[in-house]
Fold:
Amino acid sequence: MTTQPAISDTGTVTETSLETPRPLHDNAQRGFASDNYSGVHPQILQALAAANGGHQPAYGADQYTSRLQEVMASHFGAAAEALPVFNGTGANVLSLQSLLPRWGAVICAETAHINTDENGAPERVAGIKLLQVPTGDGKLTPSLIDQQAWGWGDEHRAQPLAVSITQSTELGTTYTVDEVRAIADHAHARGMRLHMDGARISNAAAHLGVPLREFTTDAGVDVLSFGGTKNGLLFGECVVVLNPEACDGLEYLRKLNMQLASKMRFLSAQLIALLDDGLWLRSATHSNAMAARLRSAVDGIAGLTATQATEANAVFVLLPRDVADRLRQSFKFYDWDPATGEVRWMCSFDTTEEDIEAFIAALRREMGAG
Ligand SMILES: Cc1ncc(COP(=O)(O)O)c(C=O)c1O
Structure:
């Protein structure tokens, strides 16, 4: 029995004796599988506890959601409108739906999460055709966009009316401010709107060293899926409208798509805690630094080839199959392309230097690098 704060039936926090719940998992187990494998940042848990107790209006009419509007505006500009949602797939589906009519299509990289990892939700739920473009590094360019930007006015072709880019990309690369601006200008000049999947936007900002609005609002992005979960939230992402003239019906679409949280204060409280005092940047800077450390060790081990620039919190490497199998006995990570032996190692806000050093030591041992 331990003495610790407890929460009464009415939500009041009191000092009491209670049995500490035992975790069902091994707390010491760590790995590089995904930034979704990490837990919740302690500051986020504190923010949730602080938002608990008492009654607050439901469905976003609470004080936390109204404060969140100010916080988002401080990062993305006065016109920014924040709509908290449960998850990233929901944020992407909502954002794209708000940009497009029924006959619209979205140009995206072949590797985009909306294309590869959302079980067809943009197509099935939003009813939107995705027009994919192969890319080597997960990034679109104006000329790559042009591979699919054609056929306007042809009733036989889904109409390309939006472009979606991911920042940082699924391959751990980032768009510079100028690259985003060039894509936005190119899209807008052709009557298309621009969506950014920012599931890891904080990692991109940490890498670029610029404020969030510089490569979003100021660069011409119309709507953003802002990521929280991968950067230490319990759960929660946010659709952020940057150009209100480009988006339509988001409040209705959020409910229609089952992304309207009744107890929204708990989504908003987390996003405020992330964005209000720089936690978003500290955490992302840390996870990027851990990935950079791992990458520089990889570059020094003969027989290992990194396949992408390490600009955010991911490292992609070609790894001999037997080495991967043995490493996985102690550290979890995913294959990215089983055909080539490419694997992905992700760092998160709670990856420690000791985690990295232990992994590097195992990697060197398995590669016979001493
Ligand atoms: C680039 C990207 N977008 C969106 C998401 C959000 O997905 P989820 O619906 O699992 O929150 C992810 C998660 O892996 C992602 O990597």
In short: The pocket of pyridoxal-5'-phosphate is lined by residues 87-89, 113, 166, 170, 197, 199, 229 (CB under 6 Å). Residues 279-299 form the longest helix (21 residues). The chain has a mean pLDDT of 95.
